[in-house]
Amino acid sequence: MTKTPLLITGASGLVGSKFIKDWSGIYDFENLDRLDPIEPVDILNLAQVLHKFQNSASKFVIHMAAFTDVSKAWEQKGDQNGAAYQINVVGTQNIITACQKTDKHLIHISTAYVFDGAKEGLYTEDDRPRAIEWYGQTKLEAEKLIQESEINWTILRIDQPFRSDSFAKVDIAHRIIEGLQSGNLYPQFVDHYFGPTFIDDFARVLDCVIRKKLTGLYHASAGEKWSDYDFASLIRETRSIASLPIKKGHLADYLKTMSRPYQKNTAMSCEKLKLELDFKMKTVEEAVGSLTSPPAPLP
């Protein structure tokens, strides 16, 4: 079976590595990585990006590389020379330019942090973004650059991703498991909400986007709204973890201890995407039930 060539950035991250692990039998992944010993490609170097694109038969590029540390990004607020802006905005512009010159379809991974978090219900693709911190602002600016370009594009917004297996960068679900098992789980907010993204399913979404050549903006999380406390309680019950009772926390109290803004709700509706998928995504309960192993320690 001939594999389909596929350009990808951020392949070594939490999401990208799972996609490669699960779909390496279908796709021949061509990674853009500045640490590659044979052909290093820094997305901040347009010449390197363009050379890679020009020498690839791939018709698609999945752009996952991003500066995702929200707190560190906030420390760089307004600094266009900072790593967050350079990677999330300038790097994305270089990918766009290379797509324009080589006629490739860009699949860009974005975030629910483009919203202000003030909505009570699920955010839809029709809701107007309003980022309230620097990470979200840089990701929103990247979205605008893509939408204003003349390339074929797909933007997929996700929120709080977690995967069935463990990974060096501990995701939200495995971090909770680790905290429950050690007895050191910090208080979980009862008044903060998010929409978990099951990476195993998201990898299938990426494959579907490529096969069906979907274009446009889609929300690609679970389409559910969970408080931190309820999500942690679900994990405790599903995993049958004998632990101390989970302590309840409140977002308002937490905000008194920090300077950066914090969205109250980032849960998104995925009804638009579900109309296009040719498979059924797992519910959050089903996804938590599929966790296969304990978390791996950080290297």
Proportion in helices: 25-40%
| Radius of gyration computed on alpha carbons | 19 Å
Number of strands: 12
Largest sheet: 6 strands, parallel
| Oligomeric state | single chain
Which spans of ≥5 residues are poorly predicted at pLDDT below 50?
295-299
Strand order of the largest sheet: 2-1-3-4-5-10
- The overall pLDDT, averaged over residues, is 95
Q: Please give the CATH architecture.
A: 3-Layer(aba) Sandwich
Strand content: 15-25%
CATH superfamily membership, which one?
NAD(P)-binding Rossmann-like Domain
Kindly, what is the distance between the CA atoms of the first and last residues, rounded to a whole number of angstroms?
36 Å
Description:
This protein has 299 residues and is of the alpha/beta class. It has a single domain (4-289), classed as Rossmann fold, CATH 3.40.50.720. It is built from eleven helices and twelve strands. The chain has helices at 14-23, 46-54, 70-74, 83-102, 134-147, 172-182, 199-212, 228-238, 251-255, 271-274, 284-289; strands at 4-9, 27-32, 60-63, 105-111, 153-158, 161-162, 188-189, 193-194, 197-198, 216-219, 226-227, 248-249. A six-stranded parallel sheet has the order 2-1-3-4-5-10, with helices on both faces. Helix 4 (83-102) runs parallel beside helix 5 (134-147).
